[in-house]
Design brief:
- The complex is a heterodimer of chains A (about 575) and B (about 70).
- Chain A has 25 helices and 9 strands.
- With about 575 residues, chain A is of the alpha/beta class.
- Chain A has 2 domains: about 180 residues, Rossmann fold; about 375 residues, no CATH class.
- In chain A, the strands form 2 sheets. Chain A has a 6-stranded mixed β-sheet, sandwiched between helices. In chain A, strands 6-8 form a two-stranded antiparallel ribbon.
- In chain A, helix 13 packs antiparallel against helix 14 and helix 16 runs antiparallel to helix 23.
- The longest helix of chain A has about 50 residues.
- Chain A is elongated, with a radius of gyration of 27 Å.
- With about 70 residues, chain B is α+β, with helices and mostly antiparallel strands.
- The chains are: A alpha/beta (about 575), B alpha+beta (about 70).
- At the A-B interface, helix 3, helix 7, helix 8, helix 12 and strand 9 of A face helix 1, strand 3, strand 4 and strand 5 of B.
Amino acid sequence: MKTYGSRRKILLAGQPNVGKSSLFNALSHKYAIVSNYPGTTVSVSELSTEIGVFVDSPGIYDFSEQGSDDAEVTKQLLQTADVVINVASARTLERDLLLTRQLMQMNLPMILVINQMDEAEKNGITIDDEKLSKKLGLKVIKAVAKKRIGVTEIIAALKNNDARRPSARDIKRTSAEQFIGQLHRQKVIIRRKPPFGKGLKHALDRALFHPYAAWVIALLILFLMFKILGVYVAGNIVDSTVSFMDSFYIPYLKLVVSKIIENELLQDILLGEFGLLTMEVKTVFGILLPLIVGYYVIMSFLEDSGYFPRLSVLTDGALSKIGLNGRAVIPILLGFGCGTMGILATRILATKRDRTIATAIIGIAVPCAAQQAIIVAMLSYVSDSRVWLIYVFIMLSAAFITGRVLDIFLKGKSSELLMDIPPLQMPSARNCVKKTLFRAFDFMREMIFIFTPTCVAMTGLNRVGFLALAQEYLAPVVQDMLNLPKEFANIFVMGILKKDAASVGLLDIAGIGTTNVLTNAQILTATVVLSLFVPCINALVVIFRENGWKAAAALWIASFFISILVGWMVAVGLNLLDASYGLGELK
Amino acid sequence: MIKTLRELSTGESARTVGFYDPYTENLLKKFGLFVGENVKCVARANMMVIEFNLMTVALAKTLASKVFIK
């Protein structure tokens, strides 16, 4: 038997959205993100336990998927696996068993876990696991992973070495139709209800597919998100945390720390303009964290409800104009949470071409959750809705033009939409909380590893006079082209490393809520430039890893020039509008 | 009368009788759509949304035109 370190490697393999990650969580007590759309798992998770190393793999439909990274990853994982837990869904068992037949050809010790038994029972599906076990020559276990039902049996089977090499490998000789026909005739699977759903949930589902009602619902959800994040979280919670930091935490901290630490350099690093205890703590805990948590709660709810795949259907027409299909809406939406997450999720797209276009759109025109928070805060101080409309129009245009240009110049054609739509379900509060905490922790870790050195570097650059020099050299761009104050050059420098945190600096420069030094036109220009500015360093690393250095470099350079070009156009345009409509005088 | 899945109107149902080519057949089998399946059109826009065996699948119209139904 092959070993993985000193323990055997137990691979969880199966089709997308059958509950592999839920089972992985139940077996390993580790948390891998679980959502209600196919393709949630885009990378391999593993955890060592006393029975072996559990490995969660991305879902695949079959091993013949051409150009599928996931199929390749699973094939490679299978080469080193000692035991395979093939996870299938009871709801779609006939289909899932086609992959089981392929896995059986690999002649590895295997257990078949039929997950989501609760859904099958609700839908009148009966599965005779003993007959199926006999037919396939495999150990078959029924489970409901999210409720930990069947987990004890799986662990016992692993401990007792019940995973065996399939004894019915010749099953592949029958065609898929014949095989499924046998399953029904021999009453292995009995479907008692008609194949089409009914009831209230079904009616809501129909509304989400209706060409008009679905748009109304989508706009309603957007409006609610704006109300919750923009008005309640940004307006109430963040205002309170910032005012606490400004009036209590920072002054007292400065008083105490400056008495303990006398070294001027250290004081500057900890308490200065880019201080780790002042600026970083205020940015991360006072501003970004509440907004990020609020955003992730809403996203988790929508992900788990099964709304995302329905949005794919709704946006398919619009996305087909830029060389994508509706499926691309999932990585783009995740990109609104975090660019890195969105770029990784482009793996669910069928072709490299689709992945390149979606990555470019995320890298250029999709502001992450932290940035959106600052954008909402900045634009909320402009009491004219025209500013919002102009901003949304510019960002949509940037996304459209990016996609259109790439669609024209990239070789090949976009893939056709073919997507599994999971059933609508009531999100589990427990999973939403777990997922939010998991992502918030990831955000904090990223902040500590990237923002902390960025703050120290900014303090160093400030002390050696580099920032003053940058302000001077960038003045023709910042002041003359963009009509912004020279301090905006600092945002450019910091934005190269951590764009979301740099956005917070914009609030300070603008004096939002205090001195209000920027005009409305300048607020809009600054917001647009920062939204389109280069992807932050961690997103760039992921683009490099996923698409190669040429794509990463091209995207970085393109977004740098696009942000300045569009910013300049906005500044000039607003100047003209100002003369005609008084847009700059709205404050 | 045999027609293609693309011609199915919203709310209509039919039985699949064949596929245009083996590529389409293999592609749709992965999603559980076989010959003899009862399918219902749930929505039609730029693509089609069909329901069968309590599963819902969205597919491009070009693909739908390669599925024969009766």
